[in-house]
Amino acid sequence: MAALYLEIDLCSELDLVWIVMQSAVAPLPPYCQELTDEDNEPYYYNSVDDTSTWEHPSTLYFTLLRDQVFFFWLLTTAPQS
User: Fold this and answer.
1) The CATH number of domain 2-63, selected from 2.20.70.10, 1.10.4080.10, 2.40.128.20, 3.30.1250.10
2) E-assigned strands of the chain?
3) Which of 9, 23, 26, 33 is spaced 20 to 30 A from 16 at the CA atom?
């Protein structure tokens, strides 16, 4: 499920599997809690700003990390002229 949210293809992007694994076990910030709706679907409540979201609070962090690793890979594997 984490790979889907992060748009990482586990078959072709094996170099990024560690990001998926880390995101799957990422703890919630202390001000957030995981709750479930009436359909037993998880969502996250932020008590600081009194908001709820379906997305794990750390998804943005791991998406940006994925992008950094990808661009680093592009820069270091680009043909040298």
Assistant:
1) 2.20.70.10
2) 32-36, 42-46, 51-53
3) 33
Residue type, 72: F
Q: Is a pLDDT exceeding 80 seen at residue 81? A: no
Residues 6+ apart with CB under 8 A from 9: 3
pLDDT of 45 over the 80 cut = yes
H-run or E-run covering 47: none
Residue recorded with tokens 């680009």: 78
What's this model's pTM, rounded to 2 decimal places? 0.73
Antiparallel, parallel or unpaired: β 42-46 and 51-53: antiparallel
* DSSP class of 21: H
